[in-house]
Description:
By secondary structure, the chain is of the alpha/beta class. The chain has nine helices and 17 strands. Nicotinamide-adenine-dinucleotide binds at residues 10-16, 35-38, 41, 58, 73-76, 78, 96-97, 123, 125.
Amino acid sequence: MTKKIKVGVAGCGYWGPNLIRNFRSLADVSLKMMCDLNTGRLKHLKSLYPEVETSTDYKHMLNGVNLDAVVVATNVKNHFPMAKAALLAGKHTFIEKPMASSVEQCEELVDIAKKNGLILMTGHTFLYSPVVRKIKEIVDKGDIGEIRYISARRLNLGLFQKDINVAWDLAPHDLSIILALMGEMPESVNCRGSAHVTPGIEDVTTMCLSFSRQRSATIQSSWLDPRKVREMTIVGSKRMIVYDDLAPLEKIRVFDMRVERPPHYDTFGEFQYAYHYGDMYAPYIKQEEPLKTECQHFVDCIKFGGTPISCGTRGTELVRILEASSESLKKEGAPIRLSQPVNDNAPAASCTARSLPKGTWKTITHPILPFSNGNGIPGIVGQFQPETVAI
Ligand SMILES: NC(=O)c1ccc[n+]([C@@H]2O[C@H](COP(=O)([O-])OP(=O)(O)OC[C@H]3O[C@@H](n4cnc5c(N)ncnc54)[C@H](O)[C@@H]3O)[C@@H](O)[C@H]2O)c1
């Protein structure tokens, strides 16, 4: 029998229990400890999982129970100090999104992990969703032509956060998907928003990202909307995809619709746009819990090596965009140009899409595989099988 990976989870509020449930369900994991400052939360979780130890002392979790890996699912402002302490204690570290409160903090974590040969992964859960993997597969095959724009809406009433605005809370999901589909970082970011409920903390924001080749994306995020909405539209030059994550069936619909401008015409009377209305289809997608795939991926990276799909560099890129969005908010929506991301040999933004297999992860130990990110830029994927599909 292979050695189980010993995991501890810090943060047992709203999201932590989902991580606890999933890590506990993995055959190659031994969930050793659940840690929270709130004894009421620990008592509740102990009643669900009596075999798992609990503690209010994070230092004890790091040093007292011989863990291999630590999961940080606390409030965002605590991500950096807790993840740094975990890495310095020699633990592989999984940090919930957004990875930290600044690019500077993210870069420090990436650096410590690299120097100590540890896995650092961020909770970009949607990259592990079979629905998003399917969209990426359709886009990469060229079925929708070149992406022209993406628009995303993630709205609901609450949950209001005290330390971050709604863009830092909700937009990471959309950003991780958009970066994977676009295959690159945006050139600039602008963001507008307003704080209606908690002074100084925007509860409604609209972020706009400009990419190369006149491509763009908008992300609307709100904690102040009567309806829960989780929608994304990807408009390509040949077809368009509508992704509704709340739809019970048919989460993705591909519309064979486009409009074309005639290449030339002699008189204004001859000029007509060509509108194409074709079929709509909804691809079949096997349901699986993205968080379980994500947790298994973290464990596989620890066991077999390789760079996680949502590695520290991907987390840093996302925080770079959020940081720019906050700067733009302060400047009433002025566009903020992004500097080039660090080159640390980690896969480029698009690589997040390159190594997810169908169904569960299959990690093997043959040498790392080269890939092209679709723009002809070579990169490194990690130790995965060549037949793995793009997401
Ligand atoms: N991946 C996803 O889909 C997803 C979904 C929701 C939330 N999240 C992320 O999960 C994280 C937690 O969010 P949440 O909504 O559960 O927050 P929450 O406020 O409900 O829970 C945070 C918990 O961390 C505990 N905590 C704070 N400091 C601590 C410390 N020093 N030691 C031990 N425990 C400590 C708090 O007591 C609290 O119980 C956030 O980063 C959030 O963005 C991710």
